[in-house]
Amino acid sequence: MAARRTTAVRGKWVLTFDAGRSTLVYVIEHEFMIRTSAGRTVCRISDAQFSRLSGGGTQVCGGYRITVRETGRSVGHQESDSAVAPATLTVAGRGRPWTVRGRWGSAC
After folding, report:
1. Alpha carbons 102 and 19: distance in angstroms, whole number
2. Please, what sign has the CA dihedral across residues 45, 51, 55, 58?
3. What is the distance, to the nearest Å, from the Cα of residue 80 to the centroid of all Cα atoms in its chain?
4. Confidence at residue 12, expressed as pLDDT on a 0 to 100 scale
5. C-alpha to C-alpha distance for 28 and 3, rounded to whole angstroms
6. Average pLDDT, whole number, for the chain?
């Protein structure tokens, strides 16, 4: 998914981490949202932070340390200008760390 990092028009890209039918991480514009059992937390992020998250990465938000790690090959979908890769999401802070498998995707 490294091709996403080269996109100059950042505001049009959306990043998501989906596990089953739930979206746990949603990133658009300057907003990073994490959904946990305690509820939803939204934080402001910079352009540089958004770029670092494109292929997975770590972000701190609302007392949580959120890490997305791609675990397989990214598959691009030219017709929808999107890509998705298998990934893991690890959330630490505010209690015991937890990890879930899912899909890390981008679309514009």
Report:
1. 4
2. negative
3. 18
4. 67
5. 17
6. 86
